[in-house]
Fold each of these.
Amino acid sequence: MNTASHSAPHDDPVLREALKRCSPSTYYAACKFRQTRAPDDLRTLVTGVIERFVERDRRAALAAGPATLRLREDLGLDSLTMMEIVMLAEEVLPLTVANDELTQLRTLGDVHDFIARKVAVAPGTSRPATPVATESWDIAAVGESIRQLEANAATSALQRGAH
């Protein structure tokens, strides 16, 4: 039996559409997180969502990812941009964020800790009783699968447009 086929992330067209302006690794982490609830996948997903809104010249600082990285001063995120980030996070994760909670977030570490707490207490989001085995995941194969899915979606859109 091929264990890789049982542990590969499931494609979710709605999730893929929500994260279409994020990196493929962000979508991959989102799919994995939905299956495994692994904290590392959540961290990658959250960082990827933030990266989508950070100016290109500041993304290197985000990639280094120190918890002390300041959202406003170091990443240039204003309150409107933070609202956009929260709206996207609410779309892809089982959480809601109140405006007063948002004002308490100052650093990247604050965001990661806050999201982890919110996801942990969200209704219906308990860890699976038996975690999905991830050691057999072939990242290159998953990346290729994502590229193929995106190509198929683009081809389908072009065909729909032609009719």
Note: Residues 1-6, 125-139 have pLDDT under 50 and may be disordered.
Amino acid sequence: MRARAFSALAFALVTALLVASCGGGDDSGAAPTSANGMPVIELRAPDGALRVEVARTVDERALGLSNRDRLDDGAGMLFDLGETRRATFVMRDMRFALDMVWIDAGRRVAGVTANAQPAPPGSMGPPYGSPGEVRYVLEVTAGVAGELGIAEGAELDFTLP
């Protein structure tokens, strides 16, 4: 009897671990998450789509893409500022150049800062500011915005979790 109870418990534990590691068993409809625990969503642009991490908290926005060597192809980070306002970003602790896409509350591109360069080590680098009030900022590897037809006036389609 004791061996049977132990076997049942072991089977239950192994099953739970397999379900958790495979991502199964969650019918909540929650967005997948990145290694940093940020939600990952699809963002559709005029000429393609990206899978983007969504930085929503102050800490997530402060960390951003710092200390990464690169972004995977088809990836980016969307910063939800939580409100419509003028925004300023710096490239502290960045290791590669970015396109910064400034997006208004209606999900229309207000402007693009192309090929923003990483700051020198130990420096904040120059500030990059939005062309007006924005709600979101999309960061992608330099050149990707142009490849996807992301330019001032373009409409982007995404649903936040």
Note: The first helix runs from residue 2 to 22.
Amino acid sequence: MFPKLILGGCYEDARGTIKYNNRFNASEIKRFYLIENKSLRFVRAWQGHKIEQRWFLVSKGSFKIQLIAIDNWEHPSKNLIPDTFFLNENQFDILHVPSGYVSSIQVLERESKLIVMANYLLGEINDEYRYDVTYFNI
């Protein structure tokens, strides 16, 4: 399975604005949390899951998210190529990250907020992998 951008939309009239994502099926979601990086220079990388899936939704600001499909969880190739996505608050797009990927998350605007949804409860499985921010030759 590959990462997929689930396109949202926005409707505006005299009453205000409604942002929506009618294509997103939330039936697999068991928990969610919010990420707010304090610095524009800080990159939250590389963390991922062999089994667990994630969905990313920007509630404020904008983010650059890079995803790498891992070839070997114990010793991944350092030359793996990331897929890069830019998400912002103007659309209600949701980025689906299937199992088997690590991510790099960087804010592009101050006070940006990213909602992360997961299909496992915290502690339900032991499935967290982390690599140093400089591990991959990007």
Note: The CA atoms of residues 3 and 87 lie 14 Å apart.
Amino acid sequence: MGSTVVVLQGDLTAARTDVIVNAANEHLVHGGGVAAALARVGGEEFVKDSERWVSEHGPVRPGQAAITSGGGLPARWVVHVVGPRYREGQDNETLLRQAVRAALDAAKELGATTVAMPAISTGVFGYPLDPAASVIVTESLRWAEAHPAILSQIRLVAYDDRTADALRLALERQE
């Protein structure tokens, strides 16, 4: 049986899953958006694991994933990926695809079966929601098709109605 990609609306920090994906910055400084919410719930252990990862490996590069414990989160691991800061003239789509793939590849390497992923780059990084939703959904489906029976479920988790609607519409267009 292959992976199922689903859209859920709710609080990513409450996702009972093997892996929660963090839409991070290069230095894993959890100052805003999804990262700040994860740090609030994940607590000191989560923050210290993030600092330790950067100290040992350097900044997280595009297409790379950093893996830390979930700390106080209900997930065992957090996979941190850096999506693009949306800019005219750069290949935003490729950079976002790389971030989604890196997150799912890391989950596979961990032996995870379920992943909860936010709408990477659509917050403070300024990626327009509808095109980002299309890229995230398309890449998640491609990854699931290329890796059958690895993850049972890829949950695209939206905090608000607008994001949930954009992800659902992108998923419906692919089915």
Note: The chain has one domain: 4-174.
